[in-house]
Amino acid sequence: MASILSDPASRGGYADRLDPELWDYIDKVSGWYPPEIIAAPIAEQRAVYNRMCVAFHQGHPEGVTTSDGLVTTAAHTIPVRRYRMTSKAAAAIVVYYHGGGFVLGDLDSHDDICAEISAGTGFEVISADYRLAPEHLHPAAFDDALAVFEWVAATSALPIVLCGESAGGNLAAAVAQATRHHTRHAVGQMLIYPGLGGDATGRSYIEHAEAPLLTVADIDFYRRIRSAPGQSPDDPTFSPLGDRDFSGLPPTVIVTAECDPLSSDGETYRDRILAAGGQALWREEPRLVHSFLRARPTVSRAAEAFAKIIGDIARLGASD
C-alpha cells in the first residue's frame, strides 16, 4: 500500500537507497493509491486499488488459458481461477493467495502474476478469492485459504506448492502449518514478502518503519482491521510466527525486499524452520520495496527477482 509520496522532499533516507526506475514505480503507485486513501471508506479504497491493478496489468503470456470456478463449503462458495499452459501437461499445481492487507484484492488484482507463474513454470495455478476484512474477520480468510487447499488436494493428483504474496504469504504459511500432516500436504511453499506476525522490535521493523509503500503504521492498521475481538497474536492461523512447532513443514523459500519493515519476518521464519530440522531459504532482495512484483515490467531488479521466484517455484514443484 502507498505510504509516502515520492517527491524528493519526502524520500527521507531512501533517496539514494533505491534505483531511479523504482522511484518512478513508487510515483505511479502513489498517484493511483495515495497515502491518504487509507483513511477513506473501505469501498473507496477497494475501488481505487482495483483501478490501479487494471492500470498495472500486463496481460497473459501466450499459451496460458484460464477458467473460473467455485469451491463450495458448508457455508458459502469461494471463487477460484485456474491457469494452465496449453502446450504441455503440468507437473505440479500452485495454490496462490493474493496480497492486499486482507482488505483488498481479488482474482483480477494479481491475475497477470498468476498467469506468468504458470507460463514460467508450466504448472497449473489456482488463485483463491478468499473473504476480506473488515466484513469478514479472522479466521474467515484462513478458513477459505484452507478450504481451497483441501479442494485442490481432493481433486488433483499433482504435487501442491503453496504460494502467497504479502497477506497471501501469511495465508500460505498458515495453511502449510495447518496441513503439514495432511496425506496430501504441500511439497513446498513460496512466500513473497509475507507478513507473518513477527516481533515489531525486529531489525527491519525499526530500520524501515517508514519505508516507501509500506510502513509499520500500515501493518498495524491491517492487523487491527482483520482482528476479531480478543484475537490472540499467538494464534498461528493469524500469525504463523506465533506457532511453537515449526517441524514437518515443506521445503520453504521466503523472498523479501530490503526496504520493507516485514523483511525480518522472513529471516525469523527461515531460522525457526532450520532450527526444527527443516529446509528453508530466505533471500532479501537489495534496493527493493514491498509490492515489487508489480514493478517487474519497468524495474530491472524487480524483474530479476521475479524470475528467481519463478525458478524457486519450479524447483519446489519438482521436489516431490
Structure description:
The chain is an alpha/beta fold and 320 residues long. It has one domain (8-317): Alpha/Beta hydrolase fold, catalytic domain (Rossmann fold, 3-Layer(aba) Sandwich), CATH 3.40.50. The chain is 35% helix and 18% strand. The chain contains 9 helices and 8 strands. The chain has helices at 20-32, 42-56, 111-121, 140-155, 167-178, 203-207, 216-225, 263-275, 300-317; strands at 64-72, 77-85, 93-97, 124-128, 160-165, 188-192, 252-259, 280-289. The protein has an 8-stranded mixed sheet with strand order 1-2-4-3-5-6-7-8, sandwiched between helices. Residues 1-6 have low confidence and may be disordered.
Brief account:
With 320 residues, the chain is of the alpha/beta class.
Q: Secondary-structure map with pairings?
A:
Layout: H1 20-32, H2 42-56, E1 64-72, E2 77-85, E3 93-97, H3 111-121, E4 124-128, H4 140-155, E5 160-165, H5 167-178, E6 188-192, H6 203-207, H7 216-225, E7 252-259, H8 263-275, E8 280-289, H9 300-317
Parallel strand pairs: 3-4, 3-5, 5-6, 6-7, 7-8
Antiparallel strand pairs: 1-2, 2-4
Helix pairs in contact: 4-5
